[in-house]
Write a structure and sequence with these properties.
Blueprint: E1 6-9, E2 20-24, E3 32-34, E4 48-54, H1 62-75, E5 76-87, H2 89-105, H3 109-127, H4 133-140, H5 146-153, H6 155-163, H7 174-177, H8 185-195, H9 199-208, H10 220-229, E6 233-237, H11 248-251, E7 255-256, E8 259-260, E9 265-271
Parallel strand pairs: 1-2, 1-4, 2-3, 4-5
Antiparallel strand pairs: 5-9, 6-9, 7-8
Helix pairs in contact: 2-3, 3-4
Length: 272
């Protein structure tokens, strides 16, 4: 039987070393290639049997998202599977409206906290000007609605919380310090001296170009449209544990032991 060629795009720190080729905008491990997908995918046509990317598409502008999806189709073999995972805008907005209604009807501390979290989940990663934004500050606190937050974003919440220091200040994300746009210490000081009051605006521009913010959001309709526009077919919604990719459950990329890593997600697959 022919060995499948599998590509994990934007793998972060969750990847399978043996069976997958793993790429990300920053090198997160010795088995990860550094690739900025905004510049295309450095692989030949029809190179892979299956592609997987989780929480990547929303970080691209709509224009770059179109190009990225076309690149995915180019390097995928005929009949190959593209599995794509994004934050589920439909689910998030429904939860937001429920939280809003609950906070209005019965403004308990729990309902107010749930509403506050849903506002952050809906909007913070679009408007933040520093790594982690208000979501990281929220998770750093001892929040009383822990079960609600973990139900919404699962292991991601714990991961984000653990990513930051314990002194109350948000640590600059590695994606900022290791990205090509990052400044060395001396250059930063020089620019701070030259730009003075404008330096803060410059740092914000560098951060917002680093890849952390969300530039678009998707629901099942808009995701299907962008995939079909690129020529993919057989769009269908799946779960964290079900896939047309053989042995999917053994890779533990979207979940493990019945626990979904990113429960706020929309999981979908298409075929070339």
């Amino acid at each position: 039987m022919e060995t499948l060629k599998l590509l994990n795009i934007g793998c972060g720190k969750r990847y399978h070393k043996k069976d997958w080729v793993n790429i990300d905008i920053v090198k997160t491990g010795p088995d990860v290639m550094t690739v900025d997908v905004r510049n295309g995918l450095p692989f030949d046509d029809n190179s892979f049997s299956a592609l997987y990317n989780s929480h990547v598409l929303e970080h691209l502008s709509p224009e770059n998202a179109d190009k990225f999806i076309k690149e995915c189709r180019r390097i995928l073999s005929p009949g190959g599977v593209l599995r794509i995972v994004v934050p589920d805008l439909e689910q998030i907005t429904k939860e937001y409206l429920d939280a809003l209604e609950a906070a209005e009807i019965k403004p308990t501390e729990q309902n107010e906290k749930n509403y506050e979290w849903m506002m952050l989940e809906l909007y913070d990663q679009v408007v933040r000007t520093k790594s982690g934004g208000l979501m990281a500050e929220y998770l750093h606190r001892n929040f009383s609605n822990e079960s609600f937050v973990y139900r919404r974003v699962g292991e991601e919440a714990r991961s984000i919380k653990n990513h930051f220091t314990g002194n109350g200040k948000v640590r600059t994300a590695k994606i900022f310090t290791r990205n090509i746009l990052s400044l060395s210490a001396w250059r930063r000081l020089l620019l701070k001296f030259i730009l003075r009051k404008e330096f803060k605006n410059y740092e914000e521009c560098v951060f917002r170009g680093s890849g952390e913010i969300h530039r678009w959001m998707y629901d099942r309709h808009s995701l299907r449209k962008i995939l079909e526009k690129a020529g993919f077919k057989h769009f269908h919604i799946v779960s964290a544990f079900k896939s047309s990719i053989p042995k999917w459950e053994t890779y533990a990329l979207d979940g493990k032991g019945g626990v979904t890593f990113k429960p706020d997600s929309l999981f979908a697959e298409v075929q070339k």
